[in-house]
Amino acid sequence: MKALVYKGPGLKALEDRPKPELQAPGDAVVRILKTTICGTDLHILKGDVPTCTPGRILGHEGVGVVETVGAGVTAFRPGDHVLISCISSCGKCENCRRGMYSHCASGGWILGNTIDGTQAEYVRIPHADTSLYPIPAGADEEALVMLSDILPTGFECGVLNGKVAPGSTVAIVGAGPIGLATLLTAQFYSPSQIILIDLDDARLEVARRFGATHTVNSTDGKAAEAVLALTGGRGVDVSIEAVGIPATFVLCQDIVAPGGTIANIGVHGHPAELHLERLWSQNIAITTRLVDTVSTPMLLKTVQARKVDPARLITHRFKLDQVMDAYDTFGRAAQTHALKVIIEA
């Protein structure tokens, strides 16, 4: 089968690989219909994720059709159309019983990280009963690719961890795909202000179309002053970091109001400063999280009810044999205006 393989920092290749086989009774092998590229894949290619070693097939998102199932799989059978969760969970270990599926003792974020992933024609899914979701008849499968990772990540790590509430003020630093997914799901709670901060005017225009009440271009280095001006000098109740670089984490500290929350979503590959000399007395909370995908069933319902449309995040489409072009397009988003790209296997 064709697969996109990580070859080391800065290196990747489309290769022929053996079709995966069942390794445990709870496994399923899924034929990929559509997958995508995540910002985390770019972090892997930068060398920021040491758990992902050369030779790994990348990708942790997608929809497909069940090809084969192990003897222990009871919820799915060959031919079922399924959504693949970016998080594999056994549902039985201590962390899973706490709802912390991202830290499952035998799962977590393993697809495209420590086991082969979804940017291929086929993928093996461990713990299939609790790591796949049935796709409702008539659903837009392309849109549902956004529910593998990006929508639950924005919602859980940003909106829920940030404690977005009716009437609250929210700033999202980063108007890339994850920041925009956070923007879409933050509106479930009717905050009074949602301020999007980015360097790219084109992405800020998208943010306004998606429901941002205000946007700030941070190119001039005065984003904090602009946010304070928009909030009467107070700052925001929730500042959400959706980039993953030191400067944006510091910006979140500069704009959070007393009693507020900084919710980190970004994947950080380098140390970032925490200014406790300013924040120790401000009653703020700082949260981090790897998505648990506990919200995926709810998000499936909201998409089916047309309360949120994740298809709005999709800007480009490619075939699997064009995956190198897809990475180029996604990696040069400032020039190509790419948000999420769909790759059809």
What can you tell me about this protein's structure?
- The protein has 345 residues and is α/β, with parallel strands linked by helices.
- It has two domains: 2-149 and 292-344, Quinone Oxidoreductase, Chain A, domain 1 (Alpha-Beta Complex); 154-287, NAD(P)-binding Rossmann-like Domain (Rossmann fold), CATH 3.40.50.720.
- Helices cover 28% and strands 25% of the residues.
- Strands 3, 4, 5, 6, 7, 14 and 15 form a seven-stranded mixed sheet that branches. The protein has a six-stranded parallel sheet with strand order 10-9-8-11-12-13, with helices on both faces. The protein has a two-stranded antiparallel sheet with strand order 1-2.
- Helix 10 (276-279) links the parallel strand 12 and strand 13.
- It is globular.
- The relative contact order is 0.15.
- The model has no long low-confidence stretch (mean pLDDT 97).
Question: Helices, strands, pairings?
Answer:
Elements: E1 2-8, E2 11-16, E3 28-36, H1 39-45, E4 62-69, E5 81-84, H2 94-97, E6 122-125, H3 128-131, E7 132-134, H4 141-144, H5 150-162, E8 169-173, H6 177-186, E9 193-198, H7 201-210, E10 214-217, H8 223-230, E11 236-241, H9 246-255, E12 256-264, H10 276-279, E13 285-287, H11 296-304, E14 314-319, H12 323-331, H13 333-336, E15 340-344
Parallel strand pairs: 8-9, 8-11, 9-10, 11-12, 12-13, 14-15
Antiparallel strand pairs: 1-2, 3-4, 3-6, 3-15, 4-5, 5-7
Helix pairs in contact: 5-6
